[in-house]
């Protein structure tokens, strides 16, 4: 199957496009560079498919362009809904296949029936770049954190539906684990202590190394005016868990992956993310 398409337009531009870029160009019926009419395409023949009913059509690029515009002729009218077609091999086709066949885990199904604020899951949230790095390397790297600045991997036990603020802070992508898996790997909830208790422990010889990754100073928001630069930060709302070492998803089995709503595979390496989503499953809000 070809993965590159040569397109020529009426203004004599010649472009090399991926199948996904070519599908976009056909949907707009315009040259991506100048917006003029497309005149020639090489190769000339493509195949489109509806992943809902598996209807497919192989034809010349002009006919395929019309198919993309009209949608699936079989299940579209029957279901009275938009049932889009995609060029087989394109990124959009891969996403449609994933959305059509993957079993997702609803976050609501993991909550306690009488406690919507509690579930037996923790999530490590991060940005797109770190998320890809973790999945490629097979390791969540421990970073210095907490009172003693010792390496640990951080998680939140906050249910997914309540994680909006945490996601704004740490990133929209996440790797979720059952708490039992994290406990088996040496994980614990982070412990927040007042300065006086920390000082008292120091007088008794301090904290042992095994406990240090989990210790934080207790801070609550101050009553200072909004313009004050001395406001204390409250991390208690993050309901943090930690593991005092790197976490290997091959030995500490993830429950599933969390993606940004509506743009989960956007950005670089989207096809790679689809492969990882198949491997680890996906957790969705509902």
Question: Key terms for this structure?
Answer:
alpha+beta; 2 domains; four-stranded antiparallel beta sheet; 19 strands
Question: What would you say this structure looks like, in words?
Answer:
The protein is of the alpha+beta class and 286 residues long. The protein folds into two domains: 4-101, no CATH class; 105-284, no CATH class. 28% of the residues lie in helices and 27% in strands. It has helices at 19-28, 61-70, 75-79, 91-101, 128-137, 164-170, 179-184, 195-203, 270-280; strands at 4-9, 14-18, 38-42, 45-49, 56-60, 86-87, 104-106, 111-112, 115-119, 121-126, 143-145, 150-156, 173-178, 188-189, 191-193, 215-217, 240-243, 256-258, 282-284. A four-stranded antiparallel sheet has the order 11-12-17-14, with no helix packed on it. Strands 2-1-3 form a three-stranded antiparallel sheet. Strands 5-4-6 form a three-stranded antiparallel sheet. β1 (4-9) and β2 form a beta hairpin. α4 (91-101) packs parallel to α9. The longest helix is centred in the middle third of the chain and has 11 residues, at 91-101. It is elongated and about 80 Å long. The two termini are 37 Å apart. The model has no long low-confidence stretch (mean pLDDT 90).
């Amino acid at each position: 199957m070809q993965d590159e398409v040569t397109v020529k337009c009426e203004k004599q531009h010649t472009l090399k496009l991926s199948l996904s870029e070519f599908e976009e160009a056909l949907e707009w019926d315009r040259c991506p560079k100048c917006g003029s009419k497309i005149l020639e395409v090489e190769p000339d023949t493509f195949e489109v498919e509806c992943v809902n009913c598996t209807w497919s059509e192989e034809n010349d690029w002009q006919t395929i362009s019309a198919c993309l515009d009209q949608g699936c002729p079989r299940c579209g009218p029957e279901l009275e809904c938009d049932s889009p077609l995609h060029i087989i091999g394109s990124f959009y086709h891969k996403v449609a296949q994933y959305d059509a066949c993957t079993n997702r885990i609803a976050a609501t199904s993991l909550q306690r029936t009488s406690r919507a604020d509690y579930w037996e899951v923790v999530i490590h949230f991060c940005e797109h770049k770190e998320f890809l790095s973790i999945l490629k390397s097979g390791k969540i790297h421990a970073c210095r954190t907490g009172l003693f600045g010792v390496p640990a991997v951080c998680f939140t036990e906050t249910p997914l539906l309540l994680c909006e603020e945490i996601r704004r802070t740490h990133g929209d992508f996440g790797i979720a684990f059952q708490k039992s898996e994290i406990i088996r790997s040496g994980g614990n909830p982070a412990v927040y202590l007042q300065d006086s208790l920390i000082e008292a422990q120091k007088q008794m010889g301090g904290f042992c190394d095994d406990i240090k990754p989990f210790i934080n100073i207790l801070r609550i928001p101050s009553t200072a005016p909004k313009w004050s630069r001395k406001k204390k930060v409250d991390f208690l709302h993050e309901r943090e868990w930690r593991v005092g070492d790197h976490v290997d998803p091959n030995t500490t089995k993830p429950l599933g992956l969390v993606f940004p709503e509506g743009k989960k595979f956007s950005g670089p390496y989207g096809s790679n993310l689809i492969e990882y989503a198949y491997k680890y499953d996906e957790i969705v809000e509902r």
